[in-house]
Each structure stands twice: as C-alpha cells, then as structure tokens.
Design goal:
The chain is mainly alpha-helical.
Amino acid sequence: MSDTTINIIFMLIGVFTYCGVHFEWDFFFNSRKAKRLVNIFGIKTTKIIYIIIAVALFSIGLLNMLGIIDIPLKLGRRH
C-alpha cells in the first residue's frame, strides 16, 4: 500500500467521523464506546471529542500527503 493510499484512508476516516457527528447517525452514537463517552461527558462534549479526532485524522493525512509533515506510514515487515 502506498503512502498516498494510506493518507487518503486517513482523510476518508476523518470525513466519515465528521459526517457521523454532523448527521447524528444512530449506529455512530449507539456503539458501546460512544455510549460510554456520552455517559461520562454528555452528548455535546462527546461530539466535540469526535470532531477533534476527525479533524486530526484528516489533517494528518492531508499534511503528510503534501509533504508538510513527515510521518512514517510504512506497513509491513521491517528488514
């Protein structure tokens, strides 16, 4: 898998996470981990946490793709 593909996957996961928060998908907030966060922090804070995660994932993918940051995303065996 190339670095570009991995960066695009990071960006897509970020977009998916943001859409899950924005559109308030039932399966997104009814998951076990999300329910736990909602019980601890409340729905508003949980949404903010997920938005921060979404923006971070998207930004890492984009900035690494543009060469602004360099994160070694190589997967597989090391020789």
